[in-house]
Amino acid sequence: MLATVAAYGLAARNWRTERRDTVAHERHTTVRREDHAHIERVEALKAGAQIESARAGAAYAEQLATALITRAALPGFNPQALTDAGLPQLPATDRDAA
Q1: How far is CA 87 from the centre of its chain?
Q2: What sign does the dihedral 12-15-17-23 (CA atoms) show?
Q3: What is the three-class DSSP state of 7?
Q4: CB 71, CB 77: distance < 8 Å
Q5: Where would I find the H helices in the chain?
Q6: Of 65, 59, 63, whose CA–CA distance to 93 is shortest?
């Protein structure tokens, strides 16, 4: 019986040490996961903002193209009159080179 009590006494010290190590590891893992989750959320927000910016840019380009086509189709539209008035000219695009 004395041997059993001594064995449990020595084992209990090791059990406490192992439990402390396990708890410390779990805490460290939890903190690391929270940090990674935060970084993932920030990157997702950045990516979402970039996507929205690209969509807005594409929508603006489409609206500008539609406006230019509509303006060119108006009766009496004279692009030379704009040039003669000194208004800025849109840059020419070469679609064959692309």
Answers
A1: 40
A2: negative
A3: helix
A4: yes
A5: 2-73, 79-84
A6: 65
Give the distance from CA 23 to its chain's centroid.
34
Please identify which residue in the block is written with the tokens 């929508």.
59
pLDDT tens digits along 40-65:
999 999 999 999 999 999 999 999 99
Q: Which two tokens stand for residue 56?
A: 């807005």
DSSP label at residue 51: H
Q: Answer yes or no: are the C-beta atoms of 64 and 72 closer than 8 Å.
A: no
Residue type, 31: V
Residue found by looking up tokens 């940090």 in the block = 35
Whether this model's pTM surpasses 0.70: no
Which residue, 90, 94, 82, 98, is CA-closest to 65?
90
Using the structure block, give the residue that is written with the tokens 């920030």. 42
The sign of the CA dihedral 24, 26, 32, 35 is negative
Token couple for 91: 């840059």
